[in-house]
Design goal:
- By secondary structure, this protein is α/β, with parallel strands linked by helices.
- The chain folds into 2 domains: about 10-90 and about 285-300, ATPase, nucleotide binding domain (Nucleotidyltransferase, domain 5), CATH 3.30.420; about 110-275, Nucleotidyltransferase, domain 5 (2-Layer Sandwich).
- Helix content is about 45%, strand content about 15%.
- It has 11 helices and 7 strands.
- The protein has helices at about 10-15, 20-45, 60-80, 90-95, 145-155, 160-170, 195-205, 215-240, 255-270, 280, 285-300; strands at about 55-60, 85, 110-115, 120-130, 130-140, 245-250, 275.
- Helix 2 (about 20-45) packs parallel to helix 3, helix 4 (about 90-95) crosses helix 11 and helix 6 packs across helix 8 (about 215-240).
- The two termini are about 30 Å apart.
- Bound molecules: 5'-O-[(R)-(carboxyoxy)(hydroxy)phosphoryl]adenosine and zinc ion.
- 5'-O-[(R)-(carboxyoxy)(hydroxy)phosphoryl]adenosine binds near residues 148, 149, 163 and 251.
- Zinc ion binds near residues 88, 118, 251 and 284.
């Protein structure tokens, strides 16, 4: 990888407690040209050196997707460059192939299981090759990231709150509260996290007054353990069901320290090779979109100027 530039919008949306679609679109319009220019400058390249363009087609907010697509199509038309549209969730798994130093890497071998845990998705995928995957399971309600964010909001920890819970949980008792672990008995590869939020609300209401620092630590640790239990257990079930020996975990929640530690333990016990990209490639970035797009372009999976955004993507 020659360069990776991210324009974060976190500070714009933080005061609203969640992403405001219209503000996101506007910020994308402002950011897209400077980001592309900076990425080229940092790589020491010009547009003339580019061989193809990869762009996120979905799933996601339609306004933001349309800005990326319009820009990519314009560039493709103006420069006569081949264009390919990628699935954002599939691209998260491709972060496992990103390396910054020449001769480094290798990445997971096929077939591998990928557990994508982002703000919007909790999805288990099986990759048969770089561009062929099957959805093994996903959340039936909230994503793991949403659960972290909603619970953090409820505890007064701000938005997005996953990292704050992670920090507090380090000093809390993971067994203080036995939060529900749904869909664990039936061998299902699907997830459900919305009950956790309700359960947290019940616990907070039972306290006399606002939670103390000690309460916050125990509530965070116990909640986080319930989420991590579900994620690690289902990843293991997916590996056993498919016979895959390599596991990729990516998406914003994959920067959670307890999740990383529990995955590492499980991989060690089960003889699984584990790939968790560094946090900067776990959260949203364009390098992962290029990583997948590279394979699609090589296979001739080209898109025309009629390519449309897929805010919802069949199967996701
Ligand atoms: O993949 P991502 O950066 O953006 C999306 O595509 O959605 O994921 C963002 C999510 C947020 O819900 C955030 O709270 C969560 O990742 N997150 C964490 C941690 N760091 C970020 N969740 C738990 N522990 C963390 N350390
Ligand atoms: Zn994402």
């Amino acid at each position: 990888m020659l360069s990776s530039v991210v324009a974060s919008q976190e500070s714009i949306h933080a005061k609203y407690g969640g992403v405001v679609p219209e503000l996101a679109s506007r910020r994308h319009i402002e950011a897209i040209v400077p980001v592309v220019e900076e990425a080229l400058a940092k790589a020491g390249k010009t547009l003339g050196d580019i061989g193809g363009i990869s762009v996120t087609q979905g799933p996601g907010l339609v306004g933001s997707l349309l800005i990326g697509l319009s820009f990519a199509k314009s560039l493709s038309l103006a420069r006569g460059l081949p264009l390919t549209g990628v699935n954002h969730i599939e691209a998260h798994a491709h972060a496992a192939f990103l390396t910054e130093r020449e001769g480094e890497g290798g990445g997971p071998g096929f077939p591998f299981v990928a557990l994508i845990v982002s703000g919007g998705h909790t999805t288990l995928l099986l990759f048969e090759d770089a561009t062929t995957y099957r959805v093994l399971g996903q959340t039936l309600d909230d994503s793991a990231g949403e659960a972290f964010d909603k619970v953090a909001k409820l505890l007064g920890l701000g938005y997005p709150g996953g990292a704050a819970i992670d920090r507090l949980a380090r000093e809390g008792d993971r067994r203080a509260i036995d939060f529900p672990r749904p869909l664990m008995a039936r061998g299902s590869l699907d997830f459900s996290f919305s009950g956790l939020k309700t359960s947290m609300l019940t616990h907070v209401r039972k306290l006399d007054g606002p939670p103390t620092e000690a309460h916050l630590k125990d509530l965070s640790a116990s909640f986080q353990e319930a989420v991590v239990d579900a994620l690690v257990t289902k990843a293991l079930w997916a590996l056993r069901a498919t016979g895959a020996k390599d596991l990729v975990a990516a998406g914003g929640v994959a920067s959670n320290s307890r999740f990383r530690a529990r995955l590492a333990e499980m991989a060690e016990e089960e003889g699984i090779e584990l790939f968790i990209p560094p946090p900067r490639y776990c959260t949203d970035n364009a390098a992962m979109v290029a990583s997948l797009g590279f394979h699609q372009l090589r296979k001739g999976m080209l898109a025309g100027l009629d390519m449309n955004a897929k805010p919802t993507w069949e199967g996701f």
